[in-house]
User: Which sequence fits this backbone?
């Protein structure tokens, strides 16, 4: 990789990291709440947070991807517009990373922090392998693609384990229903009054 490619990737990575702010604001206050609950109730809270987080994250990611070409040229100049594709891949990966973060907090809050540790070890191991192969063949786009693939795989694994162990007894988890979102927004508005 050239210095310019590393610079472009760094810009793309930093922009994508800003998208995680939405998830962090929602996720970090969750830990004290789930640690006081039974696994089933904590699982229900995690599902509600997943539902509530998804739409703002998807809107933020979509808006960021649409605005990225203009922002990159305006902020960094035409030489850095090639950061768009890595940014789009990294930004897409943030939705999986945010979901994984919520499930990680659920496991940490229900006396199973080793699950999050194993996820991190798996994440780093898989990322190292993919980076080795994809960067040599695709450059910075390969690095961004490896991040997206790893985030998807780690979320899928954690979600599968969550479904098996959360004690939700076959209840539907992670449902995106507009009516449910409207109900939650109504409750939030009433709470502020």
Assistant:
């Amino acid at each position: 990789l050239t210095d310019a490619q590393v610079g472009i990737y760094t810009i793309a990575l930093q922009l994508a990291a800003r998208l995680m702010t939405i998830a962090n604001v929602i996720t970090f206050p969750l830990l004290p709440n789930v640690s006081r609950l039974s696994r089933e109730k904590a699982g229900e809270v995690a599902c509600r947070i997943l539902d509530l987080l998804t739409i703002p994250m998807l809107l933020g990611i979509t808006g960021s991807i649409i605005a990225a070409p203009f922002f990159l040229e305006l902020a960094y100049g035409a030489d850095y517009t090639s950061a768009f594709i890595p940014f789009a891949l990294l930004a897409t990966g943030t939705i999986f990373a945010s979901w994984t973060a919520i499930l990680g907090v659920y496991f940490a809050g229900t006396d199973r922090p080793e699950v999050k540790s194993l996820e991190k070890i798996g994440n780093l191991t898989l990322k190292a392998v993919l980076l080795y192969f994809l960067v040599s063949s695709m450059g910075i786009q390969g690095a961004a693609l490896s991040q997206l693939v790893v985030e998807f795989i780690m979320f899928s694994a954690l979600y599968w384990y969550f479904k098996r162990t959360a004690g939700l007894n076959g209840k539907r988890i992670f449902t995106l229903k507009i009516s449910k979102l409207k109900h939650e927004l109504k409750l939030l508005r009433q709470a502020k009054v």
Notes: Residues 39-76 form the longest helix (38 residues). DSSP finds seven helices and no strands in the chain. The mean pLDDT is 79.
